[in-house]
Queue: 4 jobs
Job 1
Amino acid sequence: MNQFDTYSNYYDNLYQDKDYHGETKFILNAIRKFSRHSGKDILSFGCGTGTYEILLNKKGYTIVGVDLSAKMLEIARDKANQIKAKIDFRQGDVRKFKINKKFDNVLALFNIVGYQNTNNDLENFIKTAGRHLKSGGLFMFDCWYQPAVLKNRPENRQRIIKLSNGHLVKRTTTQILDIEKSLLHITFRLREFNSLKKTPEVKENHPMRFFTLNEIDYFLKKNNFNLRRVCRFKHLNKPISENNWDMFIIAEKL
Ligand SMILES: C[S@@+](CC[C@H](N)C(=O)[O-])C[C@H]1O[C@@H](n2cnc3c(N)ncnc32)[C@H](O)[C@@H]1O
């Protein structure tokens, strides 16, 4: 069972406030500005429940979405079917995924690179992108920037979310830093309840890596990518800084 399988039932409710529309606009703008191709196809790593992919498909893009979690993909396929969107969602591991096609763009959105905990994982993730991009194609992803994570340490949190069935879910997030390995160990505990009953607690561990720009650049160059832009996520013209965790990378396949 994949770590996201249990979480998947709550995923879209938990991220109902995430600005998928604004972020999709930003991605489209980045493609327009940096792409050397006019082609409109995208391979999307860690597509999850398919929200970005559906929005990009509405804008005329042909999408193949890959994810490890069968449950997340089931939700993605249901959502796409409901609006008759034709999106090719496939189960696979982005560290070794293969499809006999080259794309104009590869995306990995919402910190998919953070799940690549070791240098080996990171390199295989980049190699998969490289195998599937045309020369001049773009690889774009967001991640956490190490100097900012170390300066602005994470805090434990608690949130109550209302589900579409009227029930409530309490999510408790605890976070432990492993500085040596550049990992943040996030534990989510979820409990659904209403006035009559509580369901058993669901617990998930997500070890998420944060990065220096140097290490990302090193593995990109080593695998025939050229860094075209490093900026804040959603802000092509704002530089990364130790005050903001997010870092957005635009790399081009040589
Ligand atoms: C935070 S969710 C993001 C989902 C989606 N991109 C979004 O923004 O809503 C992370 C997703 O990455 C997937 N994932 C993590 N590691 C993966 C890997 N090695 N290969 C494929 N999918 C992976 C998980 O299964 C999960 O669905």
Job 2
Amino acid sequence: MFPSLIRVISAMLFISVLFSPTNGLDRKISAHLNPGCQGCSSNTTTLVYIRGEGKSDVLHQIWDFTKHLPTVLLSVGSLNTSLNIQWIENKPIYFNWTEKPWYTFAATIDKLYEYDDIHDTGYINPQYPQMEYSLKRISWELQESILTNSEAMVHVTGKIHNRNNNDAVISIKLDLLPFKDYAVELPHLIHTANSTLIDVSLVNLTTSFNASRYALHFVLASTDNPTDTMHYIMRKSLDDEHTPGVFEIIEIKTPSLYDSKEGGYLQFRPVSYTSPKRNVASSTIAHVSQFNRTMMPRDSTLSLFFKESQQMILVQDMFVSFGESGDGYYKQHNYTAWAYTMGYGTPPEDGFSFFVILIISIGLGVPIVLALSGVAFVLFRRYRQTNTRTRFTNED
Ligand SMILES: *[C@@H]1O[C@H](CO)[C@@H](O)[C@H](O)[C@H]1NC(C)=O
Ligand SMILES: *[C@@H]1O[C@H](CO)[C@@H](O)[C@H](O)[C@H]1NC(C)=O
Ligand SMILES: *[C@@H]1O[C@H](CO)[C@@H](O)[C@H](O)[C@H]1NC(C)=O
Ligand SMILES: *[C@@H]1O[C@H](CO)[C@@H](O)[C@H](O)[C@H]1NC(C)=O
Ligand SMILES: *[C@@H]1O[C@H](CO)[C@@H](O)[C@H](O)[C@H]1NC(C)=O
Ligand SMILES: *[C@@H]1O[C@H](CO)[C@@H](O)[C@H](O)[C@H]1NC(C)=O
Ligand SMILES: *[C@@H]1O[C@H](CO)[C@@H](O)[C@H](O)[C@H]1NC(C)=O
Ligand SMILES: *[C@@H]1O[C@H](CO)[C@@H](O)[C@H](O)[C@H]1NC(C)=O
């Protein structure tokens, strides 16, 4: 009994060590704001370049707001690849690689849609009245940044210009932590050295319809076959410990990742928040639309980056919309925040935490112990009965 208990406990400890965050960094990162730019003012021009050196490859990330559409590019190449960016004034004009990267995955938010959710579902439908707002009209301001060897983070905000509202803001935070762990904030997505956490908030936007909701329009691009398609995958997770009440994980996978276990991905939970204080009460649903084939936005970071190979890139778009039936629409809170990670490799999966393993062990262990003690008790009684009976016979 006891040796097996000890074995169970040590197995549990071993498993929890296996799933606990490693404190070593999995990639050596160096991050720079507007590298090579002479005429850039540090809070109105935001292009972050991060070189993440691993054992056998380099993951290059570019986070660009200079051409107005928030864009993240991930490129993987050999240890020899490095990137120089050429600028004219405060605009990048050329990405100069010492060696062509092997693979690139990119995502841009090019538009914000306001739509009249007449059936109150939370999904955006082309038949509903809607208005698009191009993010080309936004000038982004850098509010905060951390660019060190153990973290790269920027927080950028853009004002949405409306006739009667000066407080409407889109706020975007990008954070790269080069090791595997759960994010501090809900929905506690998993970040790794191969991914970046992205948090988008839509604050105090004015609404024009009775049932207004907002949707983000994404353009995804990857160096995959242009006739192939991105894949939408929904996984059920056994454990909602990190995101109470949410048991699904959604992944958008590039064809390379879908076919051969390595490629670009977006990963998120189908949840968004209607208050800066994130909790179960302030959570609502985030919906993803189907993908359609599209073109790269004109004069964008994407079209600049893929200038020489535009015909050879897979480009698709999708919507992410927020809200659920009966939640009072966007105007109920005038706030929506949503988080996702964008990465390269294989998307991380939840491990069981020590707590969950303990619960499972107790759940399985207690009945086993009870059953065993029941059996022991029966055996013991039989043994005593036979013994007493023998004694009686002896006395006879
Ligand atoms: C940007 O920098 C200028 C000059 O350094 C400063 O006056 C301004 O307040 C800054 N803006 C923000 C949003 O930090
Ligand atoms: C990197 O460059 C060095 C010298 O320039 C070369 O010897 C080496 O083969 C290159 N490595 C790769 C992986 O291309
Ligand atoms: C790219 O950089 C190399 C030096 O690293 C330089 O010789 C070359 O002219 C640059 N290419 C362009 C198009 O600027
Ligand atoms: C949004 O509006 C609320 C209420 O008017 C205000 O308290 C809050 O500061 C505004 N938020 C931003 C980011 O302007
Ligand atoms: C918006 O709602 C108000 C009050 O419920 C109603 O009078 C009005 O006709 C609605 N407008 C539209 C465009 O549906
Ligand atoms: C893709 O096309 C379908 C059918 O026209 C449409 O319902 C959907 O909203 C489109 N998705 C995007 C992201 O444009
Ligand atoms: C949201 O903003 C509208 C004006 O756009 C205002 O009438 C409404 O009271 C605001 N709601 C909250 C919860 O602040
Ligand atoms: C990151 O990507 C590399 C390949 O580039 C892979 O070997 C490594 O396992 C990945 N790490 C994580 C944490 O996904």
Job 3
Amino acid sequence: MADRKGKFVRVKCSKCKASQTIFGKASTKVRCLECSTVLAIPSGGNAKIRSRVEEVL
Ligand SMILES: [Zn+2]
């Protein structure tokens, strides 16, 4: 998944299976709204997605 377009991505929390749309270039940690699992961490350009990407929007 190196070639991510970097807009919004819909991810699925690996823990509670909740879907959440997050900004692909998040500059802060993104946590699941349901269980606070970290879904993405900032890494310069695109955020590193730590959960399963369902769709790039
Ligand atoms: Zn969750």
Job 4
Amino acid sequence: MEKYCDPFAKRYTEQVLWTITGRCNFRCRFCCVNTPDSALDEMTHLEAIQAIDRMAKCGVRSLKISGGEPFVREDFWSLVDYALEKGMKIDKIYTNGWLLMDSVLDQFEQRGMKPEFCVGFDGVEKHDWMRGIKGAEQAARNALIRCCLRGFPTSVEMNIHRGNTDVLRETVDVLADLGVRKIICHEVRNNDMWKHYAAGNEMSTKEYVEAVLRYIPEYYADGMRVVVRFEGVVDLYKGTGEYRVIDYKNEGKKGYLGWYIGPDGQIVSWKRITDDMENVWKEGYLEKVRETCEQAKKRFTTCSA
Ligand code: SF4
């Protein structure tokens, strides 16, 4: 059949999020990929090369790379070079930051690359507890500083739970000082790991939205210093006072809109926000978020000239 018809010829998707390994040097309390024994493992080098070949044939031009921790893969640079050879860009890398040294940034620069680094950061003085590694917070901060100083775009993903809402304001402030461009906050996904290790810090979706409502006026009062997204709730835009309430009815049910390839090579799709969000919105929270943003905007962005 392939002799007469190229099965990839008419396929096209521009971007793929690829988890290149299920291995990691961290032991996060909520991890759904690595887990303590790296249950999902990773593709062999040959399988990964073949995956790149297939992606190239399907028209993929942009990769977002995640893990596990991507930099624990010994053949990381060989895979990057092969993807570049096939005409792809590496647009974004998700990392815990521990291995993101200047020597790694040198390697990217030598290849003429400036990908965005998205570093996990779960709150000032709360991060080590969440990540299971002493020094994880300092490592993440150092990685972000290195990237910012060298002109690499940076973002942060922050898991919100009962134990870190009290440092949300301080955390956004610290990350803005470091030069982070965007912070994406979301509920901790309630998987078996988190249920086991949360130590009372599990949070319902309603509690999460209420924590966001408490924080919104503080964001405006502090000068709207960095773009912050609260997944499933609201986008807050730097400097302007503008915001966008995320309307569950229109867009909350959407899954990840590209392809996601897991560490074992399976193509996976997932919803960005939890099922409980629909019930929370039905209780009128969409309007509460809008009102809170409007009031804060009026109070903290009125021109005094
Ligand atoms: S850094 Fe990521 S992959 Fe590693 S254990 Fe934590 S959540 Fe899992």
